[in-house]
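Q: Okay, next protein. This is DUF4124 domain-containing protein from Sedimenticola thiotaurini. I've checked the sequence twice, so it should be correct. Can you predict the 3D structure?
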Amino acid sequence: MNRANRLFKGFLAVAALFAMQAEASKIYRWVDAEGKVHLSDKVPTEYSKNARSVLSESGREVDRVQKAKTEEEIAKEQELEKLRAEQQRLIEIQRAKDQVLLRTFRTEDDLLMARNGKLTAIDSNIHVIRGNIRRMKTRLAEMQQSAASMERQGQSLSTNLLKDIEHTRTQLKDSYTTIIQKEQEKEVIRNVAAKDLARFRSLKNLRDENADPQLTAKKDRSLLDTVVICSDDPACDKAWEKVEEYVRKYATTRLQMLSDVIIMSAAPVKDEDISLTASRIRYKDRPGAELFMDLQCKPSPRGADLCQTEQIEQIRVGFKQYLADSLNQ
């Protein structure tokens, strides 16, 4: 045992001697603060964090020690690693989306049919809501005429009649709000489908040869085309005064409802009648509101033709510009 210990200690001593000799034989090439190159077996303490080369006895570079990184450089490297990790995460997400896209749709037509089906379903819903709006306007007119007749005869209005009138007004406002929301849903569907179609063509190496009918066709009129945003109550109040002016100027039917959230002329009776309804939807989580206008012609062949004329189009388009001018004054 003693002999083994002596041999082991002797081995350590020889190894240490060789290490000392190897260290002593190292030559360092380093640069001082003035840019001068030095060769020495030791690097001064003040330059120990600088870059340096280790040379063999023949002067050949056998190793290189990089400059010690500053805290700022370390922080930048850590930030870069985070960015690379986030980039990789986004790449993986996109790959997963691509796989879903290719599994869901075999052709461009499949994708377009899916989009068109969603849009058609929403349009059907909007059509039903507009039908309800026409009936509510007619019902409101009847109730208001009944109320006016009772007042002329000196009769007091019943509580139920007043409640029905107010309830119908609220339903009208809510119906127009729903139409706006549905139109916004359609915009989201169109935008998502357009991005999916472009990505699908890229993944399939397809050329954009077949024009999308939804993109080339004339866009249907939408309440969104008349939306004007006001930023706070004073601006909204000022714009709302202009809304009333506009409705009074272009509606050919009598003013049927006037409040701080809805201005409505009576439903069209004659083929040449133009009915306008404007709404003010206040934001729930911040100041301001969205103002918009709906135009209605009589639901008859001649009324439908009237709604397709340039005159009606100018009334629709002019609303937004009329309010924008008032907000900028």
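A: Here is a summary of the prediction. Confidence is low (pLDDT under 50) at residues 10-24. The helical segments are 2-25, 71-104, 108-152, 159-203, 213-216, 233-250, 301-306, 310-328.
Q: Noted. On to the next one.
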